[in-house]
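Data deposition worksheet. Section B asks for the primary sequence of the deposited chain exactly as it was used as input, without tags or linkers unless they were present during the calculation. Section C holds the resulting structure in token form. Section D is free text for depositor observations; keep each observation to a single sentence. Incomplete worksheets are returned to the depositor.
Section A, Depositor: J.P.
Section B:
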Amino acid sequence: MNDTDGLYARAHKVIIEQWLPLQKGKTFTTEDVIRYFKADGVRNYRDGSSPLEFRRALATVLWNITHRNKTPDLEQNGNRYRLINRDFKVVTPGSTKGGNDFPIVWPRGVSDNTEFGFASTVVVKKGDVLGLGGEGNRGKSAFALNLTTENMDTHPVTLVLSENVHRLEDRLSHFDWVELLKPDGNWKFEVLEAHGSEEFLDIVRERANNLVIIDWLSVTKEAYLVADFYRSVSTLLNDGVCLVVQQKRSYKEYVVGGEGALDNCSVFLILTPGILEVAKAKEWQYNNPNNAMYRFAITNDGSRFCSIGEVKKCPECHGNKFVKGVKCGRCYGNGFIDVLEEI
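Section C:
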């Protein structure tokens, strides 16, 4: 085999094994593939080939599997390709009745027995993607760790960390209300360190039946990539569920990706200072939880949720905390009041 053959084989392998499994229901261009495999730089590869040679090989592979295969994998329309799906899930009578729920125990107030009201009504199914968007240092990691420990005895849980791995054991040392270790001394859940959306997708592919908790996805621009990421996670899951934790800017209503992220999630939660809001709940049993808001506090060095209660925007200041430049006397400048408070 000459060098050209080896380069083509490498391009063919990455397209078939890494790229195409992520493209169900989407269209893409050759440039999308090149950017994904970072073949647009100037460095040489270990086999001596240049990015220019590799991108030519990628383009050749795409053309061949579209036009030369007896049973083509791709369909081309102009400069865009579409994966031809021949692996359809057959639905038969009774196959979707029961057994598809993925029961989740949500974070709760372990010391004062308070809880987020949505937890008892929202329905999570196998294959669902969940989202959690929050501002920095507002409880995202606390939520992820509590979700991990609440479910580690009932589901195989994979916690994926992108930063602060060296702080994990210190944070877990405050989870003294639960037994974290198995008899062999290992955690009851799996912890993996990964960086970037591509590595996150690799993990979801390999742990497609687990409860996968990704803490956290960092995207600051290119909102379309966020929707693609959530859609790819949904495609890769089998009987598992994935929670994606994502940063939210304080001046933005939603995370980067906005409605594109919400569209591909069955549940999406938003964390702002002291408040958790249900931005989306696709299915529930009773009491529609959409747009519900809950106050909460976190104690014990960021480990325990407490003082959870449903709230709504203050009718006096409409959530603005001030009325004509003066701190609202109805909500004491909090911007919200308890739902049970008499109006």
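Section D:
The domain at 117-338 is CATH 3.40.50.300 (Rossmann fold).
Residues 40-44 have pLDDT under 50 and may be disordered.
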